[in-house]
Write a structure and sequence with these properties.
five-stranded antiparallel sheet, alpha+beta, Aspartate Aminotransferase, domain 1, globular
């Protein structure tokens, strides 16, 4: 039997035994709490959250953690969280370095906007 997505994400977080693992774990909690329709998944060897389609993914890199919103280009971002991929056709990302603060309420707003966008079939 294959591991469940949540188990794979647990293993991924545990394997990041530095600030990136701590940040990914916190972001995971924030995303999961944003909307009850959001489900954890594991795609492309990466934690992904879905709700009527892909919502966002989190990648851990050597010097940053990236929260990528698959359809971020169409989402309102009144708090200015998006700071990466600003010229991409569809996606937008939030790139976080060690010590960066996360506006958790604003992140949850983005997740809810992405879920609503997917639910509307856009």
């Amino acid at each position: 039997m294959s591991p469940q997505p949540s188990e794979l994400i647990d293993q991924h977080v545990a394997g990041l035994n530095d600030w990136r693992g701590e940040l990914l774990a916190r972001l995971r909690s924030v995303i999961n709490a944003a909307d009850p329709r959001v489900k954890e998944d594991w795609k492309w060897d990466t934690p992904v959250w879905t709700a009527s389609g892909n919502v966002c993914a989190i990648g851990a890199f050597k010097d940053r953690v990236k929260v990528n919103f698959f359809k971020g280009a169409v989402l309102p971002d009144p708090h200015g969280l998006f700071n990466g991929g600003l010229n991409a056709k569809a996606s937008r990302s939030i790139d976080l370095s060690k010590g960066d603060q996360v506006d958790e309420a604003a992140l949850q707003d983005l997740v809810r906007e992405a879920v609503a966008h997917n639910a509307a079939g856009r």
